[in-house]
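ok, trying the design again with the full structure, not the truncated one.
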């Protein structure tokens, strides 16, 4: 993404000196990177997309790895929040992010394609008033498991959220063979939007869980965690 950067690590590996170069986004040419499977793709995107705003050309990037894990924000929540945040700064139309393949931790296999134009201008914003929750949106994804499991999770989520707010929409997305990596599993992405345009998110990935959890218990756990976040 940069041209002219210098990175020096000392012999003991305890000191790193970085002299950054110009953010040229590889002159608009495609970039492909295999992300370490210890972390999700969003771990890398948190830094990459902030740099891409100030690039000289459009960033065309393909990242391979985990789209959902138990450490980082899911790619679905990240996409919604990042586009919304950039929109607040007047740069919402600069980012196009697509999930080509779903990949659950720890085996990965996910593919995310990013096309990001540089921002010509950024507006100043004020994020002070959190506001009240006005709606809840969610997405339950699954791969190589029964689609009925995700339906049961959604039913439990709606049952709990509807005690607090009527505007609740939670969708399901089942990935077939060829659309996902080797790891079977399912993940939940929840987003609560406030009256002042704030987003609160909570994510769950159950691709690498040895113990069996009933879908109803899973939905209850996810809903209570989202309420706790609020």
């Amino acid at each position: 993404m940069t041209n002219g950067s210098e990175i020096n690590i000392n012999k003991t590996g305890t000191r790193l000196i970085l002299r950054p170069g110009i953010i040229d986004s590889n002159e608009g040419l495609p970039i492909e990177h295999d992300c370490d499977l210890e972390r999700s793709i969003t771990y890398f995107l948190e830094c990459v997309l902030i740099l891409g705003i100030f690039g000289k050309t459009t960033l065309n990037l393909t990242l391979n790895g985990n789209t959902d894990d138990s450490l980082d924000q899911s790619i679905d929540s990240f996409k919604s929040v990042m586009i919304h945040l950039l929109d607040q700064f007047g740069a919402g139309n600069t980012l196009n992010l697509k999930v080509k393949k779903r990949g659950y931790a720890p085996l990965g296999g996910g593919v995310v394609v990013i096309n990001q134009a540089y921002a010509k201008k950024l507006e100043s914003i004020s994020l002070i008033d959190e506001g009240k929750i006005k709606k809840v949106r969610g997405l339950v994804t699954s791969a190589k498991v029964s689609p009925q499991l995700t339906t049961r999770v959604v039913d439990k989520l709606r049952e709990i959220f509807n005690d607090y707010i009527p505007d609740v929409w939670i969708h399901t997305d089942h990935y077939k063979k060829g659309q996902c990596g080797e790891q079977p599993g399912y993940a939940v992405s929840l987003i609560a939007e406030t009256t002042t345009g704030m987003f609160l998110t909570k994510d769950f990935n159950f691709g690498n869980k040895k113990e069996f959890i009933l879908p109803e218990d899973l939905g209850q756990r996810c809903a209570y965690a989202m309420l706790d976040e609020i």
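Keeping the full-length input from now on. The longest strand covers residues 133-143.
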